[in-house]
Amino acid sequence: MALIFAIESSCDETSVAITRDGKLLSNVINTQIEVHQKYGGVMPEIASRLHCENISLVLKEALEKADVKLEDIDAFAVTRGPGLIGALHVGMQCAKTLAMLYKKPLIPVHHLAGHIYANEFNEELKFPLLAVVVSGGNSELVIMKDHMNFEIIGETRDDAIGECYDKVARVLGLPYPGGIPIDKLAKEGEHTYHLPTPLSGEHTYDMSFSGLKTNVINLVHNLQQKGEEIRVADMCRSFQDVAVGMVISRAVKAIQEYNVKQVVLAGGVSANSYLRSEMVKECEKLNAHIIIPPMWCCTDNAAMIAKVAEHLYEMKVFAGLDLGVDPNWSIEKWNEFQN
To answer: 100, 121, 169, 329: which one has the fewest Cβ atoms less than 10 Å from its Cβ?
Structure first.
């Protein structure tokens, strides 16, 4: 193991973490949520500017908390993608500069791999494994037969589930990000609104959330035009039942077909209480072991990037200083840097 310095800046969190021999020494996160709330979503240009302002402050605090110096670091890791291109560039330039100055290896890390490996802060991963990756930008089912071995068996054909939550929350007059208020209100409501389940008749692991989102928006607008009351809690429950149900039904099918030893939740939406409880119930029925990530690891952070980097350091997966970001980087193609 080694002393790893990791940077995460793929969206609206600027984060730096430092680990030694697998132990987390520091994990500093500067979030921009309050800034973006007034716009109802992340504004890419603003996010990039704030990363530029915050990166040096976060870096300094992470070093102080870990009580280490930059010259002590064995490798610098950074999120290469996916994410917002401008935001990714800030973290990338910082990591490349440090790697060049201190003549240490540069480790490119896939953002979604970070979310999956965040579960290692709870317990060891066991294979074959099914990763249910759900966030504001991604919705994927990934089979892992070994460490750093990723096979996407299903993904969203349009919007990610987290994006869908945010847009439904906006039309219902709920704050951004939408996942927390919808999850909370859904517990108070009943499934009284009929909403379609996309791809329900297809034999596929793929998901689709755009039609569900549009249906909710149209239904709300129609009710408003008729002057009818919108039962917000009931709408939240109806929407969440369908959206999360789509994820769960496909995960159950994958658990059975691939005979996995373990299931892990990953990504921002893995903080959803309904998804967590229902996945635990289904895994118990199928006698499948499930790991639920700690809540602090559900949002973007550099600790999860460092956790992946520990494995890549042992595998000697390093990149040159000509490394560029890739906002659409597929998790199946991370190994283009493998020697």
So the answer is: 100
Per-residue model confidence (pLDDT) at position 47: 87
Q: Which of 105, 78, 127 is nearest to 329 (CA)?
A: 78
User: Can you give the pLDDT at residue 85?
Assistant: 97
Among candidates 260, 252, 251, which has minimal Cα distance to 126? 260
Specify the pLDDT at position 203: 85
Q: In 3D, which of 46, 5, 56 has the Cα closest to residue 27?
A: 5
Asked if the domains 3-116+299-337 and 125-292 are classified in one and the same CATH topology, the answer is yes
Q: What is the predicted pLDDT for the residue at 339?
A: 56
By C-alpha distance, which of 313, 317, 309 is closest to 79?
309
CATH 3.40.50.300 for the 125-292 domain, yes or no: no
Q: What is the pLDDT of residues 63-101, one digit of tens each?
A: 999 999 999 999 999 999 999 999 999 999 999 999 999
Choose among 17, 89, 43: nearest CA to 324.
Answer: 89
CA 20, CA 66: separation in Å to the nearest integer?
Answer: 9
Residue 154: half-sphere exposure toward Cβ, Cα within 13 Å = 25
Length of the chain: 339
Give the helix/strand (H/E) hosting 262: strand 262-266
CB 94 within 8 A of CB 55: yes
For 126, the token pair is: 């066991």
Residues of the chain with confidence (pLDDT) below 70: 1, 338-339
pTM metric for this prediction? 0.94
* CATH match of 3-116+299-337 with 3.30.420.40: yes
The domain limits of the chain are 3-116+299-337, 125-292
Q: What distance in Å separates the CA atoms of residue 141 and residue 257, rounded to the nearest whole number? A: 13
